[in-house]
């Protein structure tokens, strides 16, 4: 007789849900069920591809401390598999003169958190990383722990660990409805009905479809973004160890990573895509975004080109670009882990925080910035500030 009752049920097995499954399975063994509507390696959400930037350099001390927690959590997963997942190739943050994002927010936050960094001139940066063509009006923050997570390997490791600790992860099992029965949650899926004592919702761009089942909504914005891969005559110049992870912190904002998992150099625009829903999104790269990224590449990374291919991907953002990691109001047995489209690096620690909330344990972090009912999330038309 197939088992239908679990202590913990997780909806959605992208980066956040898979991390929650690992964290919960470590605590309650096999009493964990994870549900995913597609196959685990699908490319329809926000977590697919080979690499994701990880960094300590953030614009608030809270995020710097959370990032420290993320590095520690990924290290725990690496130890379980004896597998390197985080690659500290160095991180560069570029702040063009008169740009939209102040360097001081980042430098002050790192200083407040006791994290070492260097401020470089354009010339010093060109000397160390001649791949970049920037002039001296650009100030550069270098932080040595910056780098990338091997995203594909990390997702595989999270799920393997969850299963090794006894969790049951079901693919091709779409959740159709959720009912809070008070002390028990009924979850109706395409493969029958399950019940759980605690529920974690980690459904990315589909979050409001699930919250609607509880009569709730959040002002989330979903956009169709893409990563773009470029060739290089001397690809070795862009390998880890010779090329950093980098972010051009301005509006528009661009970012990139060294070669990993694909024979090209990845460059993207942060929040460069159009607003979509999971139903209206396409799988075609956006030519407007590609033109903007290509123009930036020609100007700042002239050794790159031609363009090889692009991969679409979904961003899900709150108006203040802070996550929602909280118990759902009036539903003490339901926890929401909602993304803000910079969450992969934090997945391992957000999974642990969500598991804490589900287990009634006080998390190590003050979660006020991630509250479900914070003022901006209760506004009818909140001002959206995606670049910070
Ligand atoms: C182009 C791009 C570049 C990025 N770069 C970075 C970066 O460099 N660094 C970084 O930290 N972050 C980055 N991010 C953000 C990061 O990837 C996301 O924050 C993170 O992957 C989101 O994970 P998630 O689990 O919330 O969402 P998802 O991976 O989308 O997972 C949600 C899952 O829920 C499932 N689901 C939904 N509804 C149902 C249902 N009814 N039944 C069953 N299953 C359901 C979906 O199928 C999906 O698998 C980037 C994102 C994109 C798109």
Describe this structure in words.
- This protein is an alpha+beta fold and about 400 residues long.
- The chain folds into two domains: about 5-45 and about 150-215 and about 320-380, FAD/NAD(P)-binding domain; about 75-150 and about 220-315, D-Amino Acid Oxidase, Chain A, domain 2.
- The protein is about 25% helix and about 30% strand.
- The strands form three sheets. Strands 5, 6, 7, 13, 14, 15, 16, 17 and 18 form a nine-stranded mixed β-sheet that branches. Strands 1, 2, 9, 10, 11, 12, 19 and 20 form an eight-stranded mixed β-sheet that branches.
- Helix 1 runs parallel beside helix 5, helix 2 packs across helix 5 and helix 2 (about 60-80) crosses helix 8 (about 345-360).
- The protein is globular and about 65 Å long.
- It binds flavin-adenine dinucleotide.
- The site of flavin-adenine dinucleotide (FAD) has 35 residues, from helix 1, strand 3, strand 13 and strand 18.
């Amino acid at each position: 007789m197939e088992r239908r009752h679990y202590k913990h049920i997780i909806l959605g097995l992208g980066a956040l849900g898979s991390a929650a499954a690992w964290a919960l399975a470590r605590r309650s063994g096999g009493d964990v069920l994870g549900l995913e509507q597609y196959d685990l390696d699908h490319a329809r959400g926000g977590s697919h591809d080979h690499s994701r930037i990880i960094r300590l350099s953030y614009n608030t001390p809270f995020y710097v401390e959370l990032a420290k927690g993320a590095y520690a959590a990924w290290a725990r997963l690496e130890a379980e598999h004896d597998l390197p997942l985080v690659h500290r190739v160095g991180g560069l943050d570029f702040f063009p003169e008169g740009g939209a994002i102040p360097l001081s927010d980042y430098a002050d936050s790192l200083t407040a958190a006791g994290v070492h960094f260097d401020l470089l001139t354009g010339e010093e940066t060109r000397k160390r990383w001649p791949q970049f063509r920037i002039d001296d009006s650009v100030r550069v923050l270098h932080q040595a722990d910056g780098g990338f997570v091997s995203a594909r390997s990390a997702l595989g490791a999270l799920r393997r660990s969850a299963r090794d600790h006894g969790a049951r992860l079901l693919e091709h099992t779409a959740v159709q409805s959720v009912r809070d029965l008070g002390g028990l949650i009924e979850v109706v899926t395409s493969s029958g009905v399950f019940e759980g004592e605690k529920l974690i919702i980690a459904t990315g761009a589909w979050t409001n479809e699930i919250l609607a089942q509880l009569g709730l909504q959040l002002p989330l914005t979903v956009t169709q973004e893409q990563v773009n891969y470029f060739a290089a005559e001397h690809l070795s110049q862009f390998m880890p160890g010779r090329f950093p992870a980098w972010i051009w912190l301005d509006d528009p904002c661009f970012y990139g990573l060294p070669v990993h998992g694909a024979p090209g150099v990845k460059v993207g625009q942060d929040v460069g895509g159009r607003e979509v829903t999971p139903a209206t999104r396409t799988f075609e790269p956006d030519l407007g975004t590609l033109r903007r990224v290509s123009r930036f590449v020609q100007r700042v990374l002239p050794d790159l080109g031609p363009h090889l291919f692009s991969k679409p991907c979904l961003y899900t953002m709150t108006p203040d670009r802070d996550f929602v990691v909280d118990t759902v109001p009036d539903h003490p047995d339901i926890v929401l882990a909602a993304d803000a489209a910079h969450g992969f690096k934090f997945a391992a620690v957000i999974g642990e925080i969500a598991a804490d909330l589900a287990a009634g344990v006080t998390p190590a972090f003050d979660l006020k910035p991630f509250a479900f009912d914070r003022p901006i999330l209760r506004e009818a038309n909140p001002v959206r500030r995606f670049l910070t």
